[in-house]
Write a structure and sequence with these properties.
The protein is about 45% helix and about 25% strand. By secondary structure, the protein is an alpha+beta fold. It has 2 domains: about 100 residues, no CATH class; about 110 residues, Sandwich (Immunoglobulin-like). The strands form 2 sheets. A 3-stranded antiparallel β-sheet has the order 1-2-5, with no helix packed on it. A 3-stranded antiparallel β-sheet has the order 4-3-6. β3 and β4 form a beta hairpin.
């Protein structure tokens, strides 16, 4: 056998061995079926005939991971790795919707402003701006003369004092008429910590739905106007200090 022929035979054997090794590595990657496994294979065999198909599979798996996680961060990670991926459009939409839902649930100006900064032309931009407007206006609803007093829950002046009332003056200190003002009532212990169940009631509300709506609550609250707030309960925590915290948790404008 000539030297040339022997060299050709050796090269053929090496090629077959390489093909066999690539095939085994590909088989192993497909058994694992994970982005990490496919990426490790592609790093070792970047010129593989299967490269394009494997990159598509990595894209598919990463998008599936983002869907299963269901968080804005997961979709952002997918988009960072696959900015032009096959599911990038769906990922952008899902990330925007979930980010707005998180900001809406947080209900703070900081969260809404962060959403708007990150999504200046997002599908929920108008809703976020509207909610931010309401959140900021809460600061213009003043709470004055806050106090507690023992009362008869049946409004019987001769009856026993079997409950408590939280009373305050709620003032619209802004320039817009409001149609709804919802307040959260915290019953505080001696250290100022809220105790007991979550409580809410309204100073202004046109219709409370499941609750009979007192007539005094129905009229909108004009700029500069005051509305008497009153909430009663017969269930107070054992360690209640007879002090309360009262904060506005929602408003609606009159249009």
């Amino acid at each position: 056998m000539s030297t040339k022929t022997a060299l050709l035979v050796l090269l053929s054997v090496l090629a077959l061995n390489l093909c066999a090794c690539e095939g085994l590595a590909l088989h192993d990657a497909r058994l694992k079926d994970s982005p990490a496994a496919y990426e490790a294979f592609l790093q070792q065999y970047p010129e593989s005939a299967e490269a394009d198909g494997l990159r598509s599979r990595i894209d598919e798996l990463r998008y599936r991971e983002a869907v299963e996680a269901g968080t804005p961060a997961a979709y952002r990670e997918y988009l960072a790795r696959h900015p032009k991926g096959s599911s990038s459009e769906q990922a952008h939409l899902a990330e925007e919707q979930l980010s707005f839902s998180e900001a809406e649930a947080a209900g703070t100006a900081e969260a809404l402003e962060a959403y708007l900064k990150a999504h200046p032309k997002g599908a929920s931009e108008d809703a976020a701006n509207s909610l931010l407007d309401r959140v900021l206006y809460r600061e213009r609803i003043g709470i004055h003369e806050l106090r507690t007093e023992q009362v008869n829950l049946a409004n019987n002046p001769d009856g026993p004092l079997d409950g408590w009332a939280v009373v305050a003056d709620v003032v619209n200190e802004g320039r817009r008429t409001v149609a709804l003002v919802e307040l959260h009532i915290d019953l505080l212990d001696a250290s100022g910590k809220a105790e007991g169940q979550q409580n809410k009631w309204w100073a202004v509300a046109p219709d409370l739905g499941a609750f009979p709506t007192p007539e005094a609550l129905k009229p909108p609250l004009a700029p500069g106007a005051t509305r008497a707030f009153r909430w009663t309960t017969g269930a107070v925590p054992q360690n209640w200090s007879q002090k309360v915290g009262l904060r506005v948790t929602d408003i609606r404008f009159e249009y």
